[in-house]
Amino acid sequence: MQKVLMICTGNICRSPTADGVLRHKVLAQHLAGQIEVDSAGTQSYHVGEAPDRRAQKHALRRGYDLSALRARQVNAMDFAEYDLILAMDKSHLAYLKQHCPVNHQHKLRLFMTFATQSSEREVPDPYYGGDAGFELVLDLIEDACDGILQSLR
């Protein structure tokens, strides 16, 4: 069983979208017993909340249901529990490196390093923007999730 954890700031836009997309792809490819997915935030602003309504709306248009997900903050146990901990941007990666024990640092990566179509290295935060930002985030996440699945096989 490979365990993948997606990380963004508040765990209400980017990381739950990546969580939902990868979960969907895992199920579609009959890999549910092989890959487990979760998400968390570096901050506790939204703990217990559902993903941003705009993130949910745009994801649902593409067939990804994020409604059951709830925000949580990354914790010390996550570093030991997960095999791959993926940061949405460089600030999240820096936070993770600062808090992660040395023996688990090898698990930390930028999410977009798995992208196969895009040269972007970070997933931009759509929170303060409009619809186009949420669509771009989905485009980037779908690309990187395909790469993650290729890598884990």
TrEMBL record:
The active site is at residues 8, 14, 125. It comes from the Bacteria. It holds the Pfam family LMWPc. Its EC number is 3.1.3.48. InterPro entries: LMW_PTPase, Ptyr_pPase, Ptyr_pPase_sf, Tyr_phospatase_low_mol_wt. Residues 2-151 form the Phosphotyrosine protein phosphatase I domain. Coiled coil: none annotated. CDD domains: LMWPTP (cd16343). One of its GO terms (molecular function) is protein tyrosine phosphatase activity. Keywords: Hydrolase, Protein phosphatase. Belongs to the low molecular weight phosphotyrosine protein phosphatase family. This is protein-tyrosine-phosphatase.
